[in-house]
Each structure stands twice: as C-alpha cells, then as structure tokens.
Amino acid sequence: MGMAYYVTSSLVRMGFAARENSNRLSLSDPYRLIRQWAGSHSYVLANRFIEYYTFDTEFDVFLSRFRILPRKVKTKYALTLHAAAWLMAPHVRPTDFHTYVQPNIKRKEVMEFAQALGVSPTEKSGNVKFVIPYDEGVFYSSRRLNGVMIVSPVQLYVDLYNYPGRGEEAAQKLLEKIVKDWQT
C-alpha cells in the first residue's frame, strides 16, 4: 500500500497523472510517461545474458522452434527486441533472438530450453541470447502471438528505445502501431 501511494503521488506531482473527483487516478500523458521510462532504461545494463548460437539462417525457421517447445518450458519465456517487434510491427529485420527467461530459472532448465531450441552455447557474440531480467515485471501482460510468447507492447518499446542497432527506429514504429491500435 505504501509503495502504491508513493508511486501514484509521484506520478501526480510530475504531471504524468491526475486525480479525478472520485479520487480515481488517470494518466494525463501516457506517451510522455512511456518515453520518460524508456529514456531512463538501459536494456543492456539492466539484464544478464546467456549466449547461444543457432545455425538457422532464416528467421521463420528458427521462430518455428518456439511454437513446438515442450510444455515445461513453453510459458517460461518471452521474446523481446527486434524478434518480438518483427512479430508485432515488422520494420527492422531481426538478426538476433533475445528471449527473457524467468529470473529464478535453474541452470538445468536453461539447458533444457536451449536443447529444445537446438542452440549451442557460445562465449560471446551469440545470435540467441537468453536474458535474465532485472525484474520479473518484464513478463507482465506477455502474450502469445503467432504461437510465440512475446513481451507486452509497452515492455517491448522500453527495451527497444535505447538498444543499439536501430532499436530506437523499431521502437518508434512500434509506438505508432500501439497508438493506432488504441485509437481503433
């Protein structure tokens, strides 16, 4: 309760939200709020990465492996960055797969996940990255799209915004799609 009060009071004080007569909180400028959050977030610094490599050269071929994962790992991941953006609002063709895994995942489970995807471990520069998130909140509102789990559009925007390699460009296209979807 105390944290909720602190957060809502801060949002009102900073002009991101307003209290209505019923004491209900509403966002006054959600786009400014998401841009502020994205601007202060560093995907690369906030998370830990376990690197793997796939020899699949076609995006759709490798993506199809996520659709047939065993039940025990099927809900313990969510794609992010360019691979997820390609599924939601295609603009920048992905060359890497960044996949959030549960923060409390055991080494054995990571190995089972890697085996199910048919990827090989590598020291660095892998094109498949299992991402151990700074907070399990990255999974809030994750959804299945085309048979693959992806992070929420808001989380995806935040992850892409400061990511090198055309991340900001992909984030902008994603935001345009989000706004268009909200308006319809």
Task: Tell me the structural class.
Answer: alpha+beta
Q: What is the rounded distance between the termini?
A: 34 Å
Rg (C-alpha, Å): 18 Å
Counted beta strands: 9
**Name of the level-1 CATH class of the largest domain:** Alpha Beta
- Write out the strand line-up for the largest beta sheet, numbering strands in chain order: 4-5-7-3-6
How confident is the prediction overall: mean pLDDT?
Answer: 89
Largest sheet: 5 strands, mixed
- Helicity range: 40-55%
CATH topology category name of the largest domain: Beta Polymerase, domain 2
Beta-strand content: 15-25%
Shape: globular
Give the quaternary arrangement of the chains: single chain
Quick overview:
With 184 residues, the protein is of the alpha+beta class. The chain has nine helices and nine strands.
Characterization of the model:
This protein is of the alpha+beta class. It has two domains: 2-39, no CATH class; 41-183, Beta Polymerase, domain 2 (2-Layer Sandwich). Helices cover 46% and strands 18% of the residues. It has nine helices and nine strands. The strands form three sheets. It has a five-stranded mixed sheet. Strands 1-2 form a two-stranded antiparallel sheet. A two-stranded antiparallel sheet has the order 8-9. The protein starts with a helix and ends with a helix. The model has no long low-confidence stretch (mean pLDDT 89).
